[in-house]
Amino acid sequence: MSYAGKAARDADFRGPLDVTMAATFVVDSQDIVIGWSPAAQELLGYAPSEIVGRPMSTFLVSAAGTGTGPPSACEPSSAEHPAGVPVLALPQRDVQVAVHRDGHRLQLVTRHCELSGAGPAQRVVVAADCGRLGDWESRLALLDGLATQSPLGFAIYDTRLRLVWCNAASEMELGLPSAEARGRPAGELYPGGRFVTPGYPETLDAVMRRVLDTGEPIIDLHFRGQQPSAPGREHLWSCSYYRLQDQNGQVLGVCEDAFDISDRHEAQRQLNLLVEAGRRVGTTLDVIATTDELAAVAVPEFADLVEVDLAPAVLSGELPDIGGPAGSELIRASYRSASPEHTADAAGSTGSPSRKPHPVVYADGSPQHRSLASGGLVLDDDTLVVPLRAGGSSLGLVTFVRHSGSGIFDKPAVSVADELAARAAVSIDNARRYTRERTAALALQRQLLPQYLPPNSAVEVAHRYLPTDALSGVGGDWFDVIPLSGARVGLVVGDVVGHGLHAAATMGRLRTTVRALAPMDIPPDELLKRLDDIVGQSAEAGTDPLGAAPDDDVAAGATCLYAVYDPVSRRCTMARAGHLPPAVVEPDGRVSFPDLPAGPPLGLGGLPFESLEIELPAGSLLALFTDGLVELRNRDIDMGLETLGKVLSENSGSLEDLCDRVITELLPDSTTTDDTALLLVRTRELDSRSVAVWNLPAEPVAAGRARELVAGRLTDWGLEELVFSTELIVSELVTNAIRYAEGPLHLRLIRDRTLVCEVADAGHTAPHLRHSADDDEGGRGLFIVAQLVLRWGTRYTREGKTIWAEQALPTD
Predict the structure, then answer these.
(1) Fewer CB atoms < 10 Å away: N or C end of the chain?
(2) pLDDT for 631-646, tens place per residue?
(3) Cβ distance 425 to 396 under 8 Å?
(4) CB-based burial, 505-525: b 16+ in 10 Å, e otherwise
């Protein structure tokens, strides 16, 4: 700053009545002006030659007020501050009206100083413009307010960092009179405090020394520590530091201003906590994960320890009833402490802290016991218990604990805890509802999809199912392996449009229908035709299994592939309804996709379905799958089929391993926009060692011949125990064929997991089981057969029909 600037600043600080700067003139005993200063000429316009020797009445017209009367508008009062500190103590002065040389009038405040000694000079008069005096005295009042009334703490330290002066706010924070605090080092006045602003020293001494050394002010540092006048609670101050020096540049010390922002910081911190809770709590639909998120948000930002206890029903997805006895057992779902070494259960329950959920029972009189009994929050010293309530039901409790030095749970903190618990309760309730729905969905899935495929002699199978709706675990795709008569097996894979429960329910209806139609041994194309009719009828009725409207996310055109494999003939007959064809891998590794007529999706109606029959050598691999396996957003179906063929060509090892390789290769991230079902089938063969076939004439002697043939073959197979019953069964079936059908007749025995007897003829009339009257001559044979076998039935072919019966093999 320039010399002129410093002078102006110093004059402004001393005030307009400072003798070195104010208008002064000297008068004699007759009030004749005998001395006139340049400042007086500047103020009133008269040159010394124009005024010296003339009376003061030349420019002073009359008195506007005196210091002994009531103060005028420009004359501040000298009343004392309520605390007894004078606001302003000025000597007596006069306020008079003066006339400027150019004729305009102005108010002057004057002071008179009597002179002693010889000479004509009687007194010196000091005068200043009243308006300027008011501005100056306002500044003095402002300085007085900063010293006595400002909430900002001001302190001045000397170059040795000892306190020189402090205002009332700083004195109050110290809890010491300024006289006792004066001269003490800064670090001693705030023991244990530290700066927490990154990039700056932590101690008061280091920060002040940096300001003294560099001269650069440091603004808005955050200082954390306990207020010496009120220990027990940690405060946060916003502090700034400036170097003090005189007009010659000599360093005098450091000025500190500090403002306690603890309440503001706490309010902002609590608001941030609620915002953070909204962002982090409830990110998953898992009850335990949600309680962990609540505890993680609250510790250490809001509490030193948090426990979240839930009613047992919540963990299973049910709505709890914990409004009964206060001693009801809860489950400790989450526990978190700011002190890792803290092992004591500070909340007063009998359970020890654990990361795993475990039961807890609260002692009588504990805060949790009282909260359970009252249904409301309970504040007990450093422990705050808040109920977790959602939809009018109590889900459990959350306990917040603050250790000594962390501050008490004041009213704002209690409000934040209540809001935090309320928000968490909504998320926990959502997770509970999801748990319930997912449990129901998984139960539905277990009913809709085969969880266990019993072994059979026709094929070896492995499967995978990946629903798009990974949360519920249920989708619209399905697969099935259905045992059929004659050791054959039905293979099914289907895809329902849509995802979730509606699609799964529709899928369940289709799967059930296929399982009902398959044992009728109708050809695959005919089975799909009947399935198409059923879907079309439901579409016309405008309903689905859950009663949803037709435009809901349910099947509006499902696809299906149905195949029947016969291990005796090694023939596979298949048909599809808008579905992708299967992949066929021969034992030598060659892969093909049969040119199977597509057929329309189910429910469209009016278009035919066609079957294709192929021969599969033993050891061939048949892969049935849905489009979710081969089609992705970034991959078309052709590329997916090519990749699938490459993986399947390595047809070695177990089918389970091959399933995993297929999923890993085609769905590397386990992400798909559609449900995925995969069924791998490796074919087997039943040869002459397990199958016997005879042709018989349609004559009465055929029954006896049939008995001889089966008896001999059963003896060869070591099944002598079944000879009698099998002779009876074969005799009855052959006799019925001769009596009611046409020849030629075919007799077949299959030794599989059961003993299968089949008689085929050229007729299309099925026998019927009935009760014969006492006087009937016949009609009892088929009834007797039904009592001897596990099951029996009829299947139709283009050449006629086959009646079959299965018996259980003897156990060792």
Answers:
(1) C
(2) 887 788 899 999 999 9
(3) no
(4) bbbbbbbeebeebbeebbbbb
